[in-house]
Amino acid sequence: MMNATIARWDMFELELEGPTDGNPYLEVSLEATITQGDRSIRVPGFYDGDGRYRIRFMPDAEGEWTYTTSSSTPALSGRTGALTVTAARPGMHGPVRVRNGFHFAHADGKPYLPFGTTCYAWTHQPLALQEETLATLSQAGFNKIRMGVFPKNYPFNVNEPLQDIFERNADGNLDFDRPNPEAFRHFEQQLGRLREMGIEADIIIFHPYDRWGYADMSADEDYRYVTYLAARLAAYSNVWWSLANEYDFLLDTKPMEQWDRYFAILEENDPYGHLRSIHNGDVRMNYDHTKPWVTHVCIQNWDVKRTPEWREQYGKPVVNDEPEYEGNIWPAWGNISAEELVHRFWVTLMRGGYAGHGETYAHPDDIIWWAKGGKLYGEAWKRIAFLRQVLEEDAVEGLTPLGGPETWPWSRVSGARDGNVRYIYFGEHQPAQWTSGLPQEDGDYQVDIIDTWNMTITPAERIAPIIPHPTRHGAVVRGGKPDAAFGVKLPGRPHLAIRCRG
Amino acid sequence: MMNATIARWDMFELELEGPTDGNPYLEVSLEATITQGDRSIRVPGFYDGDGRYRIRFMPDAEGEWTYTTSSSTPALSGRTGALTVTAARPGMHGPVRVRNGFHFAHADGKPYLPFGTTCYAWTHQPLALQEETLATLSQAGFNKIRMGVFPKNYPFNVNEPLQDIFERNADGNLDFDRPNPEAFRHFEQQLGRLREMGIEADIIIFHPYDRWGYADMSADEDYRYVTYLAARLAAYSNVWWSLANEYDFLLDTKPMEQWDRYFAILEENDPYGHLRSIHNGDVRMNYDHTKPWVTHVCIQNWDVKRTPEWREQYGKPVVNDEPEYEGNIWPAWGNISAEELVHRFWVTLMRGGYAGHGETYAHPDDIIWWAKGGKLYGEAWKRIAFLRQVLEEDAVEGLTPLGGPETWPWSRVSGARDGNVRYIYFGEHQPAQWTSGLPQEDGDYQVDIIDTWNMTITPAERIAPIIPHPTRHGAVVRGGKPDAAFGVKLPGRPHLAIRCRG
């Protein structure tokens, strides 16, 4: 019996020697039952080549655990051991979960506000470029990254990947029944480095931009691949499962039942219940995010003022991972201005959702952040980091919009509150004074004006509240009394926000 | 028998002396049958006070016409006369009609592209201010104005009107059975002056912003008032009927059947079939613009990229008369930046609709253009005039969007064509090169880049077309050949457009 000690939410790995004959990927089952007190967890293992089998476990509680393996192969069965789990390392807060319906927190309760970026194929680029990507990420202020397991074949993405994801057979074709351990070891090494940087990895399992055959694997090959990912990667605390980038462009070969089944495989084989989502291409083709296995809404949609609609429609956290990208390349999803992307972040956050970043400036060697990583050349990322910093200062339960999708004036301007803090973001609006949404009772509030582009926060001048003129308005006489205890004087230019604390 | 000569589309007025006893408004019917060859037109008359009755007629064809009056009062019946109609005066093109499904033209065939502004209550302001409004309009480049018959009671609009629209009875109350001829003479004088300036008057018949009682007239009072407006004003060639500003805020006292009836009264009493529309307040409360008596869609909606949806939904010209206004007042519909309003105009036009202007900068004496007229202080109006000038240079049949509401890439960027000219407006997008939507055959095209804010037009550099990289994209391999014969190099900043002629 082995005995090991690891910190809570770190990864314990049991390596076993076993048979190499036949195809262990297809033929050998392996799992462990891991127990603490009355609680037992089934943890699947996987074959890592060269006769090595692994079971990985991320304990979510301190104290003593024991395990016993079972396998279709007697040599791998009945192994036992004990595990001592100590307190989490500093900075490790555990996997991210849904909290308060529309928001997220780490397992230790620390609020998690996703501010993600996108580097679809960064782990398939030359190693020096991958180092540059990690160095950029260490400075950029993002805490999530969308990244694919498979390489990408797309405009600006014509290079071959570092490794094949499956091994090639004698005639040079990919054998989708033989995962390439080298490729996965590299992928999970980068996954671990992201974890140490506090960055969640939103792992894209399928996508249509393929010339190697990954997008055309059979249903059974897909199911085994998803099972393998769960066994191999789920013990990394920073894993999120993104079933696809643009799943709807794969519906010709992967019908809807298959997508539902992938979700089920993750539920069955990921003992930790990492977040699960699925991303659409066509805006009319959102997956039915009300299905119970979807933990949160992942969406591609530039029309960010509709965020409250998606909250209402799906009743889950909304992460708009593709509100178009800052850049200047020819595809229209990849060429909005930095100002516009920052604006879309603020609108989305101030309507109770979350947004994702991408950068797509043309580059002489096609090294574009959105797919390959490298350097950031744009202006939005700094303002997004500023927004994150502003919101994290006061984050408690998560932002709730001040009004519904069509509630005056919140269909036009954006506002949200979280406990004692409230924000009103004006965007393209530039009122010289404002009252709506401010506190209705007089009190000791700290009121600031935030310049979302210049990244300044300055105390606001409080003025008398606006008292709307009474008018016949249908049967309603609007106004006659203010809707808040005080108003705020504003400089009358766009892209400002008010923060009111207290 | 009288004989008169007027120009086509000018107004012929027959004045008759008649009874003053009782209430002629309620008790005396009057109309003329006006005949040219086989064609007879019923033209209603009206009582103008002091025993004067008038029948007004706007002939739409040159040549000889005759008329005969009929009335419930023998003194007004059987009057006959002849009318010689000469060619239209220079610059007079006749009333505006719907043409080509989604567009407008004057009766003589001249394309009419509405570029309207909004001065709801300008005819109720002091006369000097009205002169200033007209002087501004003469320079501003607008060819339509939204203006109410009734005065306005609303924030920033607290002054009493110049005149009551109905006369007051002995105890000082308005008598809704006695129109005030003085008020109407003033209103139609200004209507005539707009006509001479080439400005269409989008006359708002009802609105909810009222403290005098106009919004609470009975159904029968309403019906008589609409009938009177048609008899009195329809002979002005520049009349458009706008049943309401924000009709839905009046539904408590004027149910939907009444709105339908107002439309019918206009159809029955306006011999010329001037344009008829109705404007919503709440974006969820659009009137059913498919009803046959609605000539075009008048809409209030800031979400201007949806313009093609409204075209498809209603199958009529779309005029978004309230895409929010440039300004800095506190109501959120009245404080967008000039840049944003110009952007919304371009998006709307480049998706096959039309937009309306309003300006709402706070003013120490509440003299705000949107309601009272006066001066323009903003920056959008100049760019809107520039847009009008650009489009009128090439206007033939009207702009048709390059794609449907969700067609790639036209849901993101905006493009339209009219015969041999096509435009692509990028807005917040800033590609460094572009191909989609340009001509598919090589040829002798004139290609320009339009800076929509700086109002410059410069020749574009043509470059090789973008050839999309072939990708597996569902079952479709996208690209491999360009979708146009050439591309255009762009400076990679927002708010530019391409114009391609030939």
Written account of the structure:
- Chains A, B: InterPro entries: Apiosidase-like_cat_dom, DUF5060, DUF5605, GH, Ig-like_fold.
- Chains A, B: It comes from Devosia nitrariae.
- Chains A, B: Keywords: Hydrolase.
- Chains A, B: GO terms for molecular function: hydrolase activity.
- Chains A, B: This is Glycoside hydrolase.
- By secondary structure, chain A is an alpha/beta fold.
- The first copy, chain A, folds into three domains: 85 residues, Immunoglobulins (Immunoglobulin-like); 299 residues, Alpha-Beta Barrel (TIM Barrel); 102 residues, Immunoglobulin-like, CATH 2.60.40.
- In chain A, 20% of the residues lie in helices and 29% in strands.
- Chain A has nine helices and 33 strands.
- In chain A, the strands form nine sheets. In chain A, strands 1-7-6-3-4-5-2 form a seven-stranded mixed β-sheet, covered by helices on one side. Chain A has a six-stranded antiparallel β-sheet with strand order 23-24-25-33-27-28, covered by helices on one side. In chain A, strands 11-12-15-16-17 form a five-stranded parallel β-sheet.
- In chain A, strand 6 and strand 7 form a beta hairpin.
- The longest helix of chain A is centred in the middle third of the chain and has 16 residues.
- The radius of gyration of chain A is 25 Å and the shape is globular.
- The mean pLDDT of chain A is 95.
- Chains A and B meet through strand 26 and strand 30 of A and strand 26 and strand 30 of B.
